UniProtKB/TrEMBL annotation:
Name of the protein this chain belongs to: Uncharacterized protein
InterPro entries according to UniProt: Ribosomal_uL1-like, Ribosomal_uL1_3-a/b-sand
Gene3D superfamilies, per database record: 3.40.50.790
Signal peptide: none
Top-level division of the source organism's lineage: Eukaryota
Length: 35
């Protein structure tokens, strides 16, 4: 199983979701991963 995480915001995040990224986020995603 491969999970794709993308660190992006705004239109880049929308593009990542449209391309099939499983997890998309910015600073909040970094905090989730750290914790």
């Amino acid at each position: 199983v491969v999970t794709v995480a993308v660190f992006a915001e705004g239109s880049a995040a929308d593009e990542a979701r449209a391309a099939g990224a499983d997890i998309v986020g910015g600073d909040e995603l970094i905090e989730q991963i750290k914790n």
